[in-house]
Design goal:
With 174 residues, the protein is α+β, with helices and mostly antiparallel strands. The protein folds into two domains: 15-43; 49-171, no CATH class. It contains two helices and nine strands; from the N terminus they run H-E-E-E-E-E-H-E-E-E-E. It has helices at residues 15-42, 103-106, and strands spanning 49-53, 61-65, 71-75, 87-92, 97-101, 122-128, 139-146, 149-153, 166-171. Strands 5-4-1-9 form a four-stranded antiparallel sheet. It has a three-stranded antiparallel sheet with strand order 6-7-8. Strand 2 (61-65) and strand 3 (71-75) form a beta hairpin. The protein is elongated, with a radius of gyration of 26 Å.
Length: 174
């Protein structure tokens, strides 16, 4: 009597090809996701800041930070054509939110006169070109950057065409 040897299943030759076909794109997608999300997860800014936002191309007033760290308002244009005024905004880093700020309230703060926060973050404007070939929808966004760590921030004028309409004034000391 002959004993039958157990047969080993024969895998088709294309099984390795299929494995390679699916694993390479999945590995690339995982790497891309890591490159996008790890810098966001590592970013943890704690300093708030105040900025001025001009809702039009040009406003009748502007704000600047004095040498003493207090905000000063200047009225540059009194012509009726320049009817809109720049608005002060307070960015809260812990909530990633912006709120309006009156000039009277803003004068009470003493800000740090530096483009870089004490923890190393700067406010940067980015323009992402989107779309296909000649049709596009570019997108503007703001983010706090510290080397490779980047956190998108929600500002009042994220969709404003003119990036120079936002005037960074200073960081809030803790």
């Amino acid at each position: 009597m002959q004993t039958k040897q157990p047969q080993t299943p024969q895998h088709p030759a294309y099984a390795k090809d299929l494995l390679l076909l699916f694993s390479v794109p999945l590995a690339i997608a995982a790497l891309a996701a890591a490159l996008v999300y790890i810098p966001r997860l590592a970013a943890n800014p704690t300093y708030d800041f105040i900025y001025a936002d001009c809702p039009e191309y040009d406003c009748r007033n502007s704000y600047e930070l004095g040498a003493d760290g207090h905000i000063k308002e200047t009225t540059e244009k009194t012509d009726v054509y320049y009817g809109r005024a720049a608005q002060l905004r307070y960015y809260d880093a812990s909530a990633n939110a912006t709120r309006s700020l009156s000039y009277e309230e803003a004068k009470k703060y003493s800000l740090l006169n530096s483009s870089r926060s004490p923890e190393g973050y700067t406010l940067a404007h980015n323009y992402e070109d989107g779309g296909f070939l000649f049709w596009g929808g570019g997108k503007q966004n703001w983010q706090l950057e510290n080397g490779w760590k980047k956190q998108p921030v929600v500002l009042n004028n994220n969709e404003t065409y003119y990036a120079n309409n936002l005037i960074f004034l200073g960081w809030m000391p803790r």
